[in-house]
Amino acid sequence: MKKKIAGALIIVSLLILLMLILAEISVFEVPSNNKPLNNNDSNDKKEGINVDIINMLKMVDEPLFFNYLETFVNFGHKYTGNENCKKAGEYIFNEFKKMGLDVYFHNWRFIRFKDRNVVATLEGTDPNSDAIFIVCAHYDTVGGSPGANDDGSGIAAMLTIAKIMSQYQFNHTVRFIAFSGHEVGTYGSFAYVKKAYAENENIVCVLNVDMVGNTLENVNKLQIHKTDRTEWISQFTQEIIEKYKEYIEIILEPIPCITGADETSFLLYGYDAVMFHQPHSWYPEFYNHNPGDDISTISFDFLENVTKLLLATTAELANKSIELQIRIISPLEGHLHLFDRFKIKLPGFNLYGKKIRGMTYIRGGFSVKVDISTNEEIDVVYYLIDDGLRLGTDFVNSKPPYETKISRLFLLKRHIKGLHTLSVVVTTTTGKTARDEMDIFLLSLF
Ligand SMILES: [Zn+2]
Questions:
Q1: Which of 68, 237, 308, 360 could covalently link to 159 via disulfide, CB atoms 3.0 to 4.6 Å apart?
Q2: What is the pLDDT of residue 38?
């Protein structure tokens, strides 16, 4: 009996605490894309041009992606969950199937919307790699628009890349995803990422392709929307342009990640993601979110070059060697951690319009645990808050287990509360380094 009462008391106090915490967090604006990473610092520097990739690039031709785009546009407007949207999803599913890819519908439900993402996997051949590289686009449109550019262009590019890559083998797994629920609040990608994170998927890099069908004055300029943490993807893509310049004509324009499109869902859960997007997409001649977003507006030469760039980039990434990787496995993204003892999964809805997806809240002291994969000898693991300025030299390991405990007292003494970046850095005896980071919100209630 006493046990029951004690149990009930704990539950009631936890609920009260949760309410207090929610009341507190609603006051703060949480930045939406200043998040974590799985950056691998051991980039392969320019080696020779890959003959297989040149052959793949030669397979990108207009009839192939024109056919995907035309079929997609002919379904009409595809508002999340409507009949046309369902048919378009089925079409994409069948195309993936024809390519021999492993494909499934990922059903999701969010507030008043429910629909499905189409997820296809090209399994990697290296049994020692659990790395996943993702190419994605969205297949829903705003009401009334056939969505040739937004995002038929991305869907056509992704299907073309999948079709060609499915005829080859790669070390790492590549996943092709068509999201729905984008235009109503990026719900499809958010639901997918939440699931992937819960299943501990090692997603190394996400290339989101959204609106890549138009150019101004026939200049093939393409934006890459990136964060500091995903700068490495931008640099890698630029290297691909230089390496295959005989075949790819693109001027890459790196800009800050500002739109909050589907790549943001991944960034908020700690995965490295970028978006490829045409410049000036809001210009009236591009019929953004308008019934005029039809196939007649598409510049096919531009779309072909974008498709080639993303194909070569994905193919090179999928064979890239990953010699050293570090991942934070505790605290968990999107959870509330209490006194280093309890963790509660948060729903991650937009509370009063404040984006709290993937945010990690911590009350009291906490442990940081990491997972490191490498064949080399690990030298030191560093645990940092705000790039080391807050924690000093107190938190390092030179041997396993690679974890540390940051006590409540320590946090109090250093006046550390509110929003901070937690990062971990590993060095090997040969001088390689890798890093991971996440945003944490340290709650101070009393
Ligand atoms: Zn879009």
A1: 68
A2: 36
